[in-house]
Amino acid sequence: MLNRMIALGLLLGLAVGLGAAATGHPWLAGLAELSAPLGTLFINAVKMIVLPLVVSIIFASVARMGDLRKIGRIGGAAMGFYVVTLLPAIAIGMGVMALGLRFVPEVAMPAADAVSVPELQSIGDFLISLVPANVFAAASAGRILPLVVFTALLAAAAATLGEERRTRMVAAAEDISAALIKLVWWILLFAPIGVFGLIAPATAKLGWGLVQSLGVFVLAVALALLLFTALVYLPVLALWGRRGAWGSVRSLSGALGIAFSTTSTATAIPVTLEETKAIGVSDNTAELLVPLGASIYRPGSALFQGAAIVFLAHLYGVPVGIATASAVLIATLLVSLTVAPVPSSGVVTMAPALDAVGVPVAGLALMLGIDRIPDMMRSAVNVLGQATTTVAVDRLSGGALDEAG
User: Fold this and answer.
1) What torsion do the CA atoms of 311, 127, 50, 380 make, to the nearest 10 degrees?
2) pLDDT tens sequence across 81-90
3) Could you give the C-alpha distances from 60 to 57, 139, 152, 217, in angstroms and in order?
4) 238-263: average pLDDT
5) What CATH number has the domain bearing residue 271?
6) Whole-angstrom Cα distance, residue 312 to residue 118?
7) Is 390:281 a contact under the CB 8 Å cutoff?
8) How many domains does one find in the chain?
């Protein structure tokens, strides 16, 4: 029922926004504008819940298991899967967009003020940044990856304590997680209104002209996401999913629908947990890898960023040779691991990668203008990837984490 209501909010938002853009009717335009605060409130609620939800679930999962060697092997396998699949995601996004450039019409790039671009981290700096000097500052800045590292280390230390202390800490973390998951469900009750408030004003500003002129880019991203899913995730689910590829995808439809409509993988965490367990993943593996994946693994966003860099380089006349393409792969890989699990963050974090290959950062204004539709699609692929990782690692480990508990 909730999925249908969210879908209804999405369709109504599209109808009002595109109707306002096409007709210029003041009533439709006013309704779209007035609904914008509702979307902002919804996104603020999502952001509010992301950090405490991820931290509490990961802490409870790691501390409960106790066997740190098995946890390390499972976490290492998941990280390996992330990296191995992120690289082809970026390459497919770049390749499909390169083929689609021949159909891209002329686009007048909007004027933009100078933007201060943060320096792209080297691999060494990236590794150093994983250990926060001040965990509270990292939380305040919304840097979720260092928080995940700190939480995992703290939980690993808790797992070595005496049984009584460990039990108390795990019980407290589980109680907090349960309360936060209940809060997520409350937030989702308002998702239809929030989605309407996000879609209507965005499409009203977007307008038919920009939709038509940049439709090739959106279609290229959609095709690349479908190709990536067919080449990577469906074979993995066919090999290790107990319900087969399509059966697993259908079983994950609730989480995919929420991620698609809200453009937030974090909001879908409770449903993703339920549905991955329902398709046979062990409880401990799901509770460790689902929040971890929602924190750092966004293959759809990486694919989008690779395609967007190629697209913007074409618009600005920046040649993309083999050396530049390699730089894009590495830069986008590093950037994608730091994307916050909230709407449109994949666009904002592209700035260092754009600067690294010489593409003007002003092009981000154009990407933000058309990001709503690609963001919905890549969010669904992100959740599918997170669930696929959980299935694959659980099957390869033989449910080792449950045995450790």
Assistant:
1) 40
2) 998 999 999 9
3) 5, 19, 10, 42
4) 88
5) 1.10.3860.10
6) 19
7) yes
8) 1
